[in-house]
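Quick review question:
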């Protein structure tokens, strides 16, 4: 930016106008809406589609939308989807090949133009998750060109959290509930005796331009103070915590802990946690042909380290047991991710807890591992 960020106060009409302005700029607006008993991410065409008056009830293996009396638009925690659904799609064609009459093959790459998205309602934990995937898919020596093209065209509207869920632990991971990272616009929802409004801040030149087009009031100290107090209070109401230890060291020192046997007895190795996780990025290739054999396609789709075939080699899978696969996922997410990418792979959104069908809780497992380490003084003696 070439100038300081602009701040303002907008109301519900300003939020609705934000969707209109972004659409008029050629962007597909993606944000939260209520559908099929959940608050999901979908294309928004008007402000009326936002989940006003809807909250969520969360626990391990449990999710339910519940009504709220205050009419808040963003008083809900992370839902079943994350923004990787749009930046790193679940299934994407890589190329297609056609055989001509002369028998020669013509291969055509996927040159579909990247969409121009506007993400409305990005939580601070998910903003960090996007940054993590940026590091993995766009900043390393082997970048994903399709991801990079989509990411370059995204307009980010971040919403700070004022209502943490029972499975949230972003404070433990240093990823929220206050915004910390690059964004175009940031909003904090405030509902008090002065009304329902949003403290808005622009974080980019385009953010300044968009904010200037919205019906607004000058930013006042009262709204800014109320917004900061709500976010600070949310930080003290997290539903979960991680142990206050170096998680990278904890994972390294408990590789043979008995606790892994306990979690392995419960884990279904279904991979739900990896599908819901906003930072998991593993994929596999799938080749398909038509019945004539004259047309073939290669598709990339999400893969999970819980899949028995994920590490399959001629001699069999490297990690054949559920014990070894869960341990691989947890130690990578909380520990060895640092070795690869310089940060944790966990942002504290709690999705893996909510969407585990048997309610396995990664924070509970981390606390149990730490308790075992402290009780024994050395890692346990269990073997995979």
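Suggested answer, residue by residue:
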């Amino acid at each position: 930016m070439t100038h300081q960020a602009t701040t303002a106060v907008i109301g519900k009409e300003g939020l609705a106008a934000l969707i209109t302005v972004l659409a008029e700029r050629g962007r597909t607006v993606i944000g939260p809406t209520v559908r099929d008993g959940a608050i999901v991410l979908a294309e928004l065409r008007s402000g009326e589609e936002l989940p006003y008056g809807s909250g969520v009830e969360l626990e391990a293996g449990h999710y339910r939308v519940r009504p709220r009396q205050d009419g808040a638009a963003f008083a809900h925690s992370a839902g079943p989807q994350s923004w990787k659904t749009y930046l790193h799609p679940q299934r994407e064609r890589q190329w297609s090949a056609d055989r001509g009459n002369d028998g020669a093959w013509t291969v055509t790459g996927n040159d579909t133009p990247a969409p121009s998205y506007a993400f409305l309602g990005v939580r601070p934990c998910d903003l960090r998750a996007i940054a993590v995937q940026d590091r993995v898919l766009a900043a390393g020596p082997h970048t994903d060109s399709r991801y990079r093209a989509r990411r370059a065209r995204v307009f980010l509207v971040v919403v700070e959290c004022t209502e943490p869920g029972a499975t949230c632990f972003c404070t433990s991971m240093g990823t929220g509930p206050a915004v910390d990272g690059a964004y175009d616009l940031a909003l904090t929802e405030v509902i008090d005796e002065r009304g329902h409004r949003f403290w808005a801040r622009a974080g980019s030149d385009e953010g300044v331009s968009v904010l200037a087009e919205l019906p607004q009031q000058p930013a006042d100290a009262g709204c800014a103070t109320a917004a900061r107090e709500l976010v600070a209070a949310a930080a003290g109401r997290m539903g979960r915590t991680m142990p206050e230890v170096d998680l990278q060291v904890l994972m390294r020192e408990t590789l043979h802990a008995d606790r892994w046997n306990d979690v392995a007895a419960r884990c279904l190795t279904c991979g739900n946690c990896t599908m819901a996780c906003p930072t998991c990025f593993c994929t596999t290739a799938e080749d398909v042909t038509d019945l004539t054999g004259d047309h073939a396609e290669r598709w990339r789709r999400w893969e999970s380290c819980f899949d028995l075939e994920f590490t399959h080699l001629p001699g069999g899978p490297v990690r054949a047991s559920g014990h070894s696969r869960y341990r691989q996922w947890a130690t990578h997410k909380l520990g060895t991710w640092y070795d690869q990418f310089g940060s944790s792979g966990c942002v504290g959104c709690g999705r893996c807890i909510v969407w585990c069908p048997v309610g396995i809780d990664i924070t509970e497992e981390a606390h149990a591992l730490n308790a075992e380490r402290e009780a024994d003084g050395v890692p346990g003696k269990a073997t995979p």
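Why it works: Residues 322-341 form the longest helix (20 residues). The CA atoms of residues 22 and 29 lie 7 Å apart.
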